[in-house]
Fold each of these.
Amino acid sequence: QVQVVESGGGLVQAGGSLRLSCVASGSIFRVNPMGWFRQAPGKKRELAAYITTGGSTKYTDSVMDRFTISRDNAKNTVYLQMHTLKPEDTAVYYCNAVFGPPNFNGTNYTPDYWGQGTQVTVSS
């Protein structure tokens, strides 16, 4: 079973920065692209950032040029560096493997298991 543990969230003022970390167990991390997802109150979970095993990245438009996803395959860890945070970035952030091409506007195929996520709150 894949296990993921997210950390690094917190309360920050608008314009601030945070760095999220996700440690994943199992070989699924090493052979699959990974994504950072987020779910705001009352909204569906959405894919925010995506990284292939080789390090190629893609982002949803709203975080482009502000967020950077990276991964350390030796440590089974994926990171999300977030700058210039906005109140609309407030959400619970999750990481997971992504099967198939990323979909920033709809359904992504992921393992059934999700971690507890990490809360990011941006105050105005």
Note: The chain has a mean pLDDT of 95.
Amino acid sequence: VQLQASGGGLVQAGGSLRLSCVGSGRSFSNYVMGWFRQAPGKEREFVAAISWRGRRTYYADSGKGRFSISRDNAKNTVYLQMNNLKPADTADYYCAAAEQWGTTMLADFSSWGQGTLVTVSS
């Protein structure tokens, strides 16, 4: 599946953004979808994931209570709603697709979109 992320931008601390990722090619609903992020000088890290039909989700501790992942398989799209953003959330955000549930490992996600930059000012 090919993935295209969008929705990044500059926002003040406390603000919100919604990222989108559109998939094309092989059936989007066959994949667990995830979001990762990579801050300057840091390793890419897991943010959130959602199951094939959207019934289950899990989050990294950094985003619990502030981030919400969802998907619309009819639109081949996964979303990441980010609220109460903090300067520490500044990063390139990547969507990714996996065939297995329950993993946060980069190597388990076989398809990646390009990053979309989120910058949170203090």
Note: The chain has a mean pLDDT of 96.
